[in-house]
Specification:
By secondary structure, this protein is an alpha/beta fold. The chain folds into 2 domains: about 240 residues, Aldolase class I (TIM Barrel, Alpha-Beta Barrel); about 70 residues, Non-ribosomal Peptide Synthetase Peptidyl Carrier Protein, Chain A (Orthogonal Bundle), CATH 1.10.1200. The protein contains 15 helices and 10 strands. The strands form 2 sheets. It has an 8-stranded parallel sheet with strand order 3-10-9-8-7-6-5-4. It has a two-stranded antiparallel ribbon with strand order 1-2. It binds flavin mononucleotide.
């Protein structure tokens, strides 16, 4: 039996499911979110991380694409990052003014150009300052503010659990903990015991567990070992976009239905491509879809060796032809 979870409440929001889609820069754009939402059972999705400078002062197509949403794209958490607290507050107020239901502060991004300047996981080197930054953003808006953390800068300073009470006192509505340090980036396994310590440190604020949930079994394990209030799925949902539905059904005690994964993946591929082309235009859509090709090749034709040729494709007709060939290939 899967453990049962009460509804996940984040501030005034009661989510339809406790399973969330992680923010993933370059992947969780509007086309992908809408494709994934069509499966149902998604508690909340997030934007890719947003730079407040570009939000407040920027112009241009790329900015508009990152900020794009739609009525069906709800609820949506808007994730911002930065080391300048005044800018974060201004960005949060601007997003609130545009109707955002929730702001998420990124305190976990390991990328050197972000964390090195004190943003993202850079905040974990100064946990007290991170808590007071979250408190200031929280005070700047009426909508809920959440924080997404890693465990710490490196293994010598696991600060996340120690930050939880301060974040809760600051009025942060929920914390998501990715069970790795900045130094680990994406290596090793997520440390579920360290996430459990974060859960134990919270008095009532929901703590959402994140890291390596790639199946119903690993979702159950995250819940059983951490006692977290919700689950956030990242790369597992890129590889298997229906995974969030599968996990949410399991948590609701529903039996798994027989499911032809290969047929569903091919159907998803075409829906995904169509949405990307409609959203980015033919040229931009082809260019951006190319980075998805490895996901589809890995799943449909894992032994295929001509990936570099697929990355060269420049036009829509050639891409459709290559994808039709992938879809028609035998999986071995
Ligand atoms: C390609 C990629 C982009 C990511 N971008 C973001 C981001 O913009 N904001 C963020 O908080 N985390 C980002 N992450 C981290 C994920 O949200 C998540 O915490 C991490 O992948 C661990 O979860 P998983 O094991 O389920 O993938 C990114 C991860 C990947 C793989």
């Amino acid at each position: 039996m899967a453990p049962q979870l009460p509804p996940l409440k984040i501030g005034p929001l009661t989510l339809a499911s406790p399973v969330l889609l992680a923010p993933m820069a370059g992947y969780t754009d509007l086309p992908f979110r809408l494709c994934l939402r069509a499966y149902g059972r998604l508690g909340m999705a997030y934007t890719e991380l947003i730079n407040p400078h570009s939000l407040l002062r920027g112009k241009g197509r790329r900015r508009a694409q990152v900020l794009a949403t739609a009525a069906e794209d709800a609820p949506l958490g808007w994730q911002i990052y930065g080391s300048d607290v005044a800018m974060l507050c201004e960005a949060a107020r601007a997003l609130e003014g545009q109707g955002a239901p929730l702001i998420d502060l990124n305190m976990g991004c390991p990328e050197r150009k972000i964390s090195g300047g004190g943003a993202g996981a850079g905040w974990l080197r100064t946990p007290a300052a991170a808590v007071s930054a979250a408190a200031r953003v929280r005070a700047a808006v009426k909508i809920p503010v959440t924080v997404k953390l890693r465990l710490g800068w490196d293994a010598t300073a696991l600060v996340a659990a120690g930050m939880v009470p301060g974040l809760e006192d600051a009025g942060v509505a929920a914390v998501t903990v990715h069970g790795r340090t900045r130094a680990q980036a994406y290596t090793g396994a997520a440390d579920l015991e360290a996430i459990r310590c974060c859960v134990a440190a919270a008095r009532g604020m929901p703590v959402i567990g994140n890291g390596d949930i790639v199946s119903v079994a690993s979702a159950r394990q995250m819940l059983a070992l951490t006692g977290c209030a919700g689950l956030m799925v990242g790369r597992g949902a890129l590889a298997r976009p229906w995974l969030i539905r599968e996990i949410a059904r399991d948590l609701a005690g529903e039996l798994a239905e027989p499911f032809d994964e290969r047929a569903e993946r091919i159907a998803f591929l075409w829906r995904h491509l169509d949405r990307m082309l409609a959203f980015y235009g033919s040229e931009g859509g082809v260019r951006l879809f190319r980075k998805w090709i490895p996901q589809y090749v890995r799943a449909l034709v894992p032994h295929r060796r001509d990936l570099p040729a697929l990355f060269q494709i420049e036009d829509e007709a050639a891409l459709r032809e290559a994808l039709a060939e992938l879809a028609g290939s035998r999986g071995n």
